[in-house]
Amino acid sequence: MKKVAIILADGFEEIEAITAIDILRRAEIKAVSVGLNKKIVNGTHGIEVKADMILDDLNVGEFDMIVLPGGLPGAEHLAKSEKLAEILKKFNDKNLKIAAICAAPWALSTAKVLKNSYTCYPGFEQKVNHQGYTDEKNVIIDENIITSKGPATAMEFALNLVKVLLGDGKFNTLKTELLYK
């Protein structure tokens, strides 16, 4: 069974985090919520989530993918975390999948794992400060890095995580079950 870590920092965007967790679990992928610094994490809109574990306990070798939801100030906390940057570099060195949505590509830039092409929340590319920004697609897959624009693209982003991990069959089945066009 594939296993994915979804990193939650105070101020995370709830739509992006919960959609990813939900879709991954529907695909029978073990989606593990990971608090950046603590188990009880508050979303940007005041929704409190109890994470399955904290980042200090994450073992890179147990996971196939790491996912960073955006939201503010959540993405800023992610970008400023030296521990997360170390983990992102380890994922990248092992060519494991790294996904970020909305403002969270900022953390990928800080960790120096972004490749040639990415997308993020429109206007936030200045904060990401990395060449290769495009707004032509809602989801960009560049080697092992998957990025997406924001809350309205959360479903498309999550379905693409399934596609990357399990292929077209499960992706298409889920799209049909979810009435996604």
Can you characterise this structure?
The protein is of the alpha/beta class. It is built from 7 helices and 9 strands. It has helices spanning 14-26, 74-79, 82-93, 105-110, 125-128, 154-166, 168-177; strands at residues 3-8, 30-35, 40-42, 48-50, 53-54, 65-68, 97-101, 139-142, 145-148. Helix 1 runs parallel beside helix 6 and helix 6 runs antiparallel to helix 7 (168-177). The model has no long low-confidence stretch (mean pLDDT 97).
Task: For this entry, give a set of tags.
7-stranded mixed sheet, Rossmann fold, two-stranded antiparallel sheet, DJ-1 family protein, 7 helices, Class_I_gatase-like, Prot/Nucl_acid_deglycase, DJ-1/PfpI, alpha/beta, 181 residues
Blueprint of the fold:
Elements: E1 3-8, H1 14-26, E2 30-35, E3 40-42, E4 48-50, E5 53-54, E6 65-68, H2 74-79, H3 82-93, E7 97-101, H4 105-110, H5 125-128, E8 139-142, E9 145-148, H6 154-166, H7 168-177
Parallel strand pairs: 1-2, 1-6, 2-5, 6-7, 7-9
Antiparallel strand pairs: 3-4, 8-9
Helix pairs in contact: 1-6, 6-7
Beta-strand residue percentage? 15-25%
Structural class: alpha/beta
Helix tally? 7
Q: State the shape.
A: globular
Radius of gyration: 15 Å
DSSP, total strands: 9
Main β-sheet, spatial strand arrangement: 5-2-1-6-7-9-8
The oligomeric status of these chains comes to single chain
Helical proportion? 25-40%
CATH architecture: 3-Layer(aba) Sandwich
The tally of domains stands at 1
Kindly report the CATH topology: Rossmann fold
Which spans of ≥5 residues are poorly predicted at pLDDT below 50? Answer: none
The CATH class assignment is Alpha Beta
GO cellular component, one term: cytoplasm
Protein name: DJ-1 family protein
InterPro entries: Class_I_gatase-like, DJ-1, DJ-1/PfpI, Prot/Nucl_acid_deglycase
Domain DJ-1/PfpI: 2-163
